[in-house]
Amino acid sequence: MSLKDSLEYEPMSAEGWEDPYPTYRALREQAPLHRAPESGIYVLSRYADVEFALRHANEFSSNGMEKMLFGSRDLADMGFREYRALFRFFIRARQIPFLHERPRTLVTLDPPRHDEMRQVVNRGFTPRRIAALEARMREIVAGCMSRLESGEPFDVVRDLSIPLPVTVIAEMLGVEAERMNDFKRWSDALISASSGADRERGLPAVLEPMGEMRSYMRRVVRERRKQPKDDLISVLVDSAHAETLNEDELFSFITLLLVAGNETTTNLISNATMALLSHPEELAKVKGDLSLVPSMIEETLRYDSPVQMLFRQTTQEIELPCGKLPADADVAILLGAANRDPEVFEDPDRFDVTRNPRGHLAFGFGVHFCLGASLARLEAKVAMEALVPELPDVEATPTPDFIDSYMLRGLRSLELPA
User: Fold this and answer.
1) Is the predicted pLDDT of residue 117 greater than 90, yes or no?
2) Domain coverage including residue 408
3) Are 188 and 262 a contacting pair, CB within 8 Å?
4) Which own/partner pairs from 126-132 qualify as long-range (CB within 8 Å, at least 24 positions apart)?
5) Do 258 and 169 form a contact (C-beta atoms < 8 A)?
6) pTM to 2 decimals?
7) Residues 6+ apart with CB under 8 A from 3
8) What SS3 class is residue 408?
9) What is the predicted pLDDT for the residue at 394?
10) Least confident among 224-233, 270-279, 346-355, 380-389
């Protein structure tokens, strides 16, 4: 993408997905307060501005995420099949059309309700609960790696980075193992509708899979209320606590966990593998000292962030280091650009597994810091400790096949060379 094109940058355009970093550099240097010419979205690309926006949640409302990702088309534009899907969804969800407010998620809520809801769901993500998952993660990874160890063709995405987080999240929630493929299918549908190929259709594109998910999860929640188990859903509906989630809030949180918990870790593992294969000297360092795996994971988070951007909406006129934003402005916050800002990270376009990239923003910052960050880090650590020794020593840069999403960065597939 040329410098001219970068200054005409549209955050939700597919152009330049393969390598957005030259564009990010041009934005930081030439247009740190860029306004997209078609959408009118303001774009922040420098670390100082991105960190400021994330830190000041009251001035930068998360309603921007709701508006950009989950807004639907006008009902007048819907066809017969979409109306039928909408009707079926309301039947499955047991909701009254047009009278039922769509529940908000943690990523679309502002304080104080965000903080109240987060306090409830934090009960399922305590350090003790996360640490207790490590042994099971290692079992799952060992099963995934058996294909590679037997000499069969091995796709890092299909055979490792998808099944590990999908299995972990499903088991955390307490759902049947045979429904794990459905979880991945539901997650893919949400990504496609919110930031991928189906985003023009918006809500109608996910009515069928979300209706399936809602119907299934209603049964699971009902069972846990009657007979609790040692799983996340039981924790969240435990009436022994003063604060619990109602059914709509619980469904919204499960939906968020399904996407964020699966996709972030899947992309982190595949992006880390791609970076190592593309930098054999760095791979050699990690193979020679597996204690470097945690720092390599942090460097991957900085170097090739699984989540590239977030959206906010200003609640008032705001003075930033890069300039002034008007009230009610739609704002795209480029995490991927901030994480390569040379004002913060020396030689930022270099992948260095010994770097200590303290302060990277891959998991956000402030009140919206990713709830599952420790879970994602542990899953990636366990996966990469098993995978790195098996990676080829010679330089092998596969042709990347990126997922269809302007917001997320990861691979559809990554076949290891024979």
Assistant:
1) no
2) 69-316+372-413
3) no
4) 127/374, 130/374, 130/375, 130/378, 131/378
5) yes
6) 0.87
7) 26, 30
8) strand
9) 60
10) 224-233
State how many domains the chain has.
Answer: 1
Q: DSSP labels for 335-347?
A: HHHHTT-TTTSSS
The two tokens of residue 147 are 């294909």
Whether 117 maps to a domain, the answer reads yes
For 347-363, give the DSSP string: STTS--TT---TT--TT
Report the pLDDT averaged over residues 293-297: 98
Span 333-344, pLDDT tens digits: 999 999 999 999
Q: Is residue 271 part of a domain?
A: yes
H helices then E strands: how many in the chain? 18, 9
Tell me, what's the pLDDT at 174? 86
Backbone angles phi, psi at 94, to 5 degrees: 55, 50
Query: β-pairing, 33-35 with 42-44?
Result: antiparallel
Whether residue 104 has pLDDT greater than 70:
no
User: Which CATH number does the domain housing residue 309 bear?
Assistant: 1.10.630.10
DSSP 318: E
Q: Is residue 14 part of a domain?
A: no
Report the pLDDT averaged over residues 409-413. 93
Q: Is the link from the previous residue into 127 a cis peptide, with omega within 30 of 0?
A: no
Q: Which residue in 334, 273, 287, 327 sits closest to 307, CA to CA?
A: 334
Query: Is residue 117 a contact partner of residue 109, using CB atoms and an 8 Å limit?
Result: yes
| Residue 215, pLDDT above cutoff 80 | yes
- Ramachandran bin of 97, using left for φ above 0, alpha for ψ from -120 to 50, beta for the remaining angles: beta
Residue 338: CB atoms within 10 Å: 31
**Whether residue 106 has pLDDT greater than 90:** no
Q: Are 28 and 321 in contact (CB under 8 A)?
A: no
Mean pLDDT of 302-318: 96
Among residues 48, 187, 115, 165, which one has the least CA distance to residue 368?
115
> 402 CB contacts (<8 Å, ≥6 apart)?
17, 18, 409, 410, 411, 412
Buried b / exposed e over 268-300, threshold 16 CB at 10 Å, is: bbbbbbbbbbebbebbebbbeeeebbebbbbbb
Q: Per-residue pLDDT tens for 282-291?
A: 999 999 999 9
Residue 26 lies in a domain: no
Instruction: Determine how β-strand 60-61 pairs with β-strand 309-314.
Output: antiparallel
Half-sphere exposure of 204 (CA within 13 A, CB side): 15
Within 264-396, strands assigned E span 309-314, 318-320, 323-325, 330-334
Q: With H, G, I as helix, E, B as strand and everything else as coil, classify residue 368.
A: helix
